[in-house]
Write a structure and sequence with these properties.
By secondary structure, the chain is α/β, with parallel strands linked by helices. The protein contains 10 helices and 15 strands. Helix 5 links the parallel strand 5 and strand 6. GO terms for molecular function: kinase activity.
């Protein structure tokens, strides 16, 4: 809990938004709508955005009276209660962790969309780095929470709540089944996933051990929530398929024969038996690899399947007002962070995981 957050309950928490990208712009809108929060600062990496109003950058059609800046020290000097951090971390993980440590060490609570291994870092982040993060939180008396929709709500809170209905659990499988053709993240799509690249190339995400860093936190957090000790190491399975025809997405062009779809799994086993499975089916067109799992409707879904007594299956679908599921994926990620702010500020100093925040709701947002 930040030492700066002692205030009357009626006073909004002062929040800085950190980025205005595909998730960050929705964070601005979310903070503006939240009755317990006040946007007091905004960081941008693009010099062309410096000096612009936050409302314009979020596409709200009105000014919010908060001017974007790339002056990091000036934002820290505002002494906000929290930073909602959604800057790109996938291609700068170590630098991003250093940023988050600096914020909490300065006494500012942080709610971030990444690096995703901090969602549940125990057994994932190397021990020395974990201790450094914990020390920074202790030094500043502040808390750090990393979450979103995936890794995040769809594969931590949602499956764990469902297990409260179980009499016996044989296996938990949490899946994302999605068409990424409208997902705008060129660096992620081409450089990390390798869409549009020859299958002979092995991008970073498919190097041994990387999936266990990126999504291993999902498997480990479910195991921790259920009191399960997993075999080590976690098991990784990757199946990459070529595009059969030239395929266009908003992020990358995919010539026929280059990588167009991928299914990957991170598996937690007990005595060699699959118990907790993270399963991702990622297409760049809806008709690719039809034999792989399919969503119940077009676009995509998050699926939780619990095998045991009883057998349960839940398909969680979403879409924005424009009908696109990738747009609403950014909104749900942003809102999971925004709605967590009061809870993270109130939490004891340290790393806060979803296991600590099972009570986050959309309180105050009914229109």
């Amino acid at each position: 809990m930040s030492l700066l957050s002692s205030r009357p309950e009626s006073t909004p928490l002062r929040v800085v938004g950190w980025s205005t990208g595909t998730v960050g712009r929705h964070v601005i809108a979310g903070i503006d709508r939240h009755p317990e929060l006040e946007l007091v600062g905004l960081w941008v990496s693009n010099p062309e955005k410096v000096g612009q109003d936050a409302g314009a950058l979020a596409g709200l059609g009105r000014d919010l009276g908060v001017t974007a800046t790339n002056d990091r020290d000036a934002l820290i000097a505002l002494r906000p209660d929290a930073i909602v951090h959604t800057a790109m971390t996938d291609d700068r993980m170590f630098e991003a962790i250093d940023d988050l440590k600096a914020f909490v060490a300065a006494g500012i609570n942080v709610i971030s969309s990444g690096p995703v291994l901090l969602q549940y870092p125990y057994g994932v982040l190397w021990e020395d780095a974990l201790r450094q993060v914990e020390k920074a939180c202790a030094d500043g008396g502040a808390s750090l929470h990393v979450n979103g929709i995936d890794p995040g709500f769809a594969n931590d809170v949602l499956p764990l709540v469902m297990t409260s209905l179980s009499q016996r659990i044989d296996e938990i499988r949490v899946s994302e089944i999605a068409d990424y053709s409208t997902y705008y993240q060129p660096v992620v799509m081409r450089e990390l996933f390798g869409f549009g690249k020859p299958l002979e190339e092995t991008p970073m995400l498919w190097q041994p051990g990387v999936l266990s860093l990126a999504w291993g936190s999902v498997v480990r957090q479910i195991a921790a929530g259920l009191g399960v000790t997993l075999d080590e190491p976690l098991t990784e399975v990757v199946d990459r398929r070529p595009a059969e025809v030239d395929t266009s997405t908003v992020s990358v062009e995919i010539p026929a024969g280059t990588m167009g779809a991928v299914r990957f799994q991170v598996i937690g086993r007990v005595d060699g038996v699959d118990k907790i499975v993270l399963d991702h089916v990622t297409r760049t067109a809806e008709d690719q690899v039809p034999e792989w799992p399919q969503p119940p409707t077009g676009g995509g879904c998050y699926r939780v399947e619990i095998t045991g007594e009883p057998h349960m299956l839940l398909d969680f679908t979403h879409h924005g007002e424009n009908g696109d599921h990738n747009d609403s994926g950014m909104i749900t990620t942003a809102q999971r962070l925004v709605n967590s702010v009061p809870h993270v500020v109130a939490a004891p100093a340290g790393i806060v995981t979803a296991l600590d925040l099972m009570s986050v709701t959309g309180r105050g947002l009914v229109s």
